[in-house]
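Dear support,

I submitted the protein below through the web form. The confirmation email said the job was done, but the results page showed an empty box. After a refresh the structure appeared. I'm attaching both so you can tell me whether what I see now is the final result or a partial one.
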Amino acid sequence: MTIVVVGQFRLPPENVSLAHAAMERVVVATRSEDGCIAYSYAEDMIEPGLIRITEVWSSRAALAAHFETPHMKKWQQERAEFGLSGREITAYSASGTETL
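What the results page shows now:
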């Protein structure tokens, strides 16, 4: 079953540009993982420092494996150094898709 992940976290606005290279590295590496259908981070247009997360995975097992990758382990350390806070992420099971 497809897993859709939607979430957000905050960085101090002055640290977003400092974190950009690390976020780009994790996005590029994650997109090449088995089972990753989509993975993106985007800064909110209204609230500086609010980063939106959107992910689509082929299975719960693929998502679980993602958290064990070296690039995610590194990102978990880096994001703390950048002042990450307010992390709220939810995974949803999706049974199908529909073009809107």
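Response: this is the final, complete result; the empty box was a page-load delay. The radius of gyration is 14 Å.
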